[in-house]
Design a protein that fits this description.
Elements: E1 3-8, E2 13-17, H1 22-31, E3 38-42, H2 48-59, E4 63-68, E5 71-75, E6 83-84, H3 86-91, H4 97-106, E7 108-112, H5 125-133, E8 137-141, E9 144-148, E10 156-158, H6 164-174, E11 180-184, H7 190-201, E12 205-207, E13 213-217, E14 225-228, H8 233-245, E15 249-253, H9 261-269, E16 273-277, E17 280-284, E18 289-290, E19 294-295, H10 307-314, E20 317-318, E21 320-324, H11 335-340, E22 344-348, E23 352-356, E24 365-367, H12 371-383, E25 386-391, H13 403-408, E26 413-417, H14 420-430
Parallel strand pairs: 2-15, 3-14, 6-7, 10-11, 18-20, 19-21, 24-25
Antiparallel strand pairs: 1-25, 1-26, 3-5, 4-5, 7-9, 8-9, 11-13, 12-13, 15-17, 16-17, 21-23, 22-23
Helix pairs in contact: 1-2, 1-4, 1-7, 4-6, 5-6, 6-7, 8-10, 8-12, 10-12
The protein binds ligand EPZ.
């Protein structure tokens, strides 16, 4: 298994370009099959999750052409199956967006039931509730979700909680339903808005995305489009945290500052200076970071996908910080790994971490338990004194394109390695 070797203690300095939003891309690539004309999508991040979803789309018969490293053309005209195999779901849960896309277009869909994952049980009851409200019969049997509908009719749907996945999935099924649909308690994340904007560019009639009430007027069909995906809020936030933890000075380019407001606000509370341009933010890490408290919330609150990265920064912030995770039930699995690097962190009740800042972290060999926790361990290793080895970086590569290359561009000493020999060579080279 590939690993990262990192020599920490070097302030990150310079500029980094942010790629397309993974979580917007996964929704949009699935929605692209809902018409029978070519759909051209740009700014698609070249990461494992998007590549697996493109394989799944190809598998059911859509024509997928790679136009460039970050652009793809999809044509759903030749789809010959409504059944998405388990092999794709077990690799990425977001394959379940094909449920909404196929149900909306063909009134039937069969997608393997996504299991839980490292951060929580991840049920899909709200997806099922939404599809049934539109008139579909949804059966969960033999590990498959089977949705069928003679007709899809608009409905007034109240989600029990703000759920990104269910909001997007049900929105996709509703755009081709007969009549009007209202989604109450809808998720407001930037990638929900991006998915709605994409569908509207295909001829859908969606209003209110980005608020907690989304109104959809069903149309008979959708048409081809050209679309560019928004920048990745979480990739941007991750580099902002790396700048703060290493006391660096980093300009994060190709971002939408509005999407980063909760992240910037919290970094400013720790003493970081942040300046904004139209499509960039600049983070000046300070020699002394101060404690603050974090509570993850649906957008526009502090994003759960930034919780591990912020905790890595707070590990070095003077005083006691409290981080409360309200979205997922098991998102502190990395705490023990941080502690191996010298962090003083204690998890209580499963969803609250109490962090007493320490003056220094020391490099260690650690495991990435999931995507964002892996990114947090890289941040800690970049700030730590000495060498760290991060195992299981396949998780990190699910959501960060060229992560080590972009960090090297900021002066980090990090390399992807395959074996102990590579590690020794790196240490000899760096000294
Ligand atoms: C999306 O997951 C993201 N993934 C996650 O990012 C992100 O953490 C999450 O939204 C929250 O922002 C993608 O977009 C591919 P939810 P999703 O439905 O849609 C509960 C990353 O690191 N829930 O908003 O699965 C659920 O258990 C990943 O990029 C139900 O109870 O998240 C959770 O507690 C990790 N029933 C809460 O809602 C349902 O039917 C929020 O989940 C659906 C969700």
């Amino acid at each position: 298994m590939e690993q990262y070797i990192i020599k920490g203690g070097i302030p990150l300095i310079g500029e980094v370009e942010i790629g397309g939003a993974k979580n917007a891309a996964l929704a949009i690539l699935a929605a692209a099959i809902m018409c029978d004309e070519p759909v051209y999508i740009e700014n698609v991040p070249n990461v494992r999750d998007t590549n697996v979803l493109l394989q799944a789309i190809t598998e059911i018969g859509a024509v997928v052409e790679r136009i460039g490293p970050h652009s793809v053309k999809i044509n759903g005209k030749k789809i010959n199956s409504i059944c998405v195999d388990y092999e794709f779901i077990k690799k990425i849960r977001a394959s379940y967006y094909l449920l909404g896309a196929l149900l909306g277009k063909y009134h039937q869909a069969e997608v393997a039931l996504p299991g839980g994952c490292n951060i929580g049980s991840r049920p899909i009851d709200q997806h099922k509730k939404g599809f049934e409200a539109l008139g579909a019969e949804v059966l969960i049997e033999s590990g498959m979700v089977k949705a069928n509908a003679k007709r899809l009719r608009g409905s007034h749907i109240y989600f029990d909680l703000a759920t990104v996945g269910a909001t997007i999935n049900v929105m996709m099924a509703a755009v081709l339903a007969e009549g009007d649909t209202i989604l109450e308690n809808a998720a407001k994340e930037p990638h929900v808005v991006d998915a709605a904007n994409f569908l509207n560019s295909m001829g859908a009639k969606i209003k209110g995305a980005g608020t907690d009430v989304i109104r959809i007027r069903g149309v008979k069909s959708l048409h081809g489009t050209e679309y560019s995906i928004i920048p990745d809020q979480i990739e941007a936030g991750t580099f902002m945290m790396a700048a703060a933890a290493t006391k660096g000075d980093v300009i994060v380019r190709n971002v939408i500052p509005k999407h980063l407001e909760a992240i910037s606000a919290k970094l400013i509370e720790t003493g970081c200076q942040i300046t904004e341009e139209d499509d960039a933010v600049r983070v000046f890490g300070q020699s002394n970071l101060y404690h603050t408290n974090i509570k993850t919330l649906p957008y526009p609150g502090f994003p759960t996908d930034m919780q591990p990265q912020m905790t890595a920064v707070l590990a070095l912030a003077r005083g006691t910080s409290i981080v409360t995770e309200t979205i997922f039930e098991n998102r502190f699995k990395y705490a023990g790994e941080l502690a191996r690097m010298g962090a003083d962190i204690k998890v209580e009740g499963g969803n609250t971490a109490i962090i007493n800042g320490v003056s220094r972290l020391t490099g260690a060999e650690v495991n990435a338990p999931d995507l964002r926790a892996g990114a947090a361990l890289v941040i800690a290793a970049l700030a730590a004194e000495g060498y760290s080895v991060i195992d299981d970086i396949v998780y990190i590569e699910r959501g960060y394109e060229d992560f080590e290359i972009k960090l090297n561009g900021l002066g980090a000493q990090i390399q992807k390695v395959k074996c102990e020999k590579d590690i020794q060579k790196f240490k000899l080279k760096i000294g």
